[in-house]
Design a protein that fits this description.
Elements: H1 26-29, H2 33-45, H3 65-92, H4 98-118, H5 138-159, H6 166-192
């Protein structure tokens, strides 16, 4: 989904996803409004898009620049989530809900990969591996999870405006639903319990159902 680092600071901010430098004719050279707004919000939060260095000049497929940038922002968010939850699992011995939700994030990545393939957009590797944040406690990680899932939900609401293509919109809606209806409640239960109960003990049925 943006997830943890949308609200937990990391080094560096990023320019508009794949955007060209602003020339004198701003109406021609500035990024589309929705993606430009997302870039400004990401800069303000201290987040970063590590896969947004897309060379639009080489793309010959049917998607617009705004549609490609939207896909990259979505994938960056899912990559960041997967890498962050992987770090939590390694640091805290596979606690739930992180171990379950990381698996769900892997499925989200695969769904986006299918869209990239359908429109012949090169699929970037996960540049968040080894760069994810670490937390001092499981409760701190759960709080970051809550904040990140809320931010993820809001990201997809904005990405709906970047495309009219039904197949892409359906994927965005499915990933948003998983974030809001499954992941967010699981992390909230984790936070309310004071950081959870360790490996193999969940937070109610359906923590990642349908995700």
């Amino acid at each position: 989904m943006l997830r943890i680092l949308l609200l937990a600071a990391v080094a560096g901010a990023f320019p508009a996803c794949g955007g060209a430098p602003v020339a004198e004719n701003k109406a021609v050279n500035e990024p589309a409004p929705v993606v430009q707004e997302q870039a400004r919000e990401s800069q303000a939060s201290g987040s970063e898009c590590r896969i947004c260095d897309f060379d639009h000049a080489t793309y010959k497929g049917p998607l617009s620049k705004e549609e490609i940038d939207g896909l990259l922002l979505a994938l960056n968010d899912e990559y960041l989530a997967w890498a962050t939850y992987d770090r939590v699992n390694k640091d805290f011995n596979d606690p739930r809900p992180f171990v379950n939700i990381q698996q769900a994030e892997g499925r989200h990545i695969e769904r986006l990969k299918g869209v990239f393939g359908s429109y012949e957009v090169p699929f970037p590797e996960n540049k968040w591996l080894g760069r994810a944040p670490q937390f001092k406690s499981l409760q701190e990680a759960c709080k970051a999870g809550v904040d990140g899932e809320i931010a993820n939900r809001d990201l997809y609401t904005r990405l709906f405006e970047t495309t009219k293509r039904e197949d892409i919109t359906l994927v965005y809606k499915a990933l948003q639903s998983a974030s809001e209806e499954n992941h967010l409640p699981a992390f909230q239960r984790c936070l309310d319990s004071g950081g959870g109960n360790g490996r193999g003990r969940g937070y109610g049925r359906g923590a990642d159902r349908g995700s």
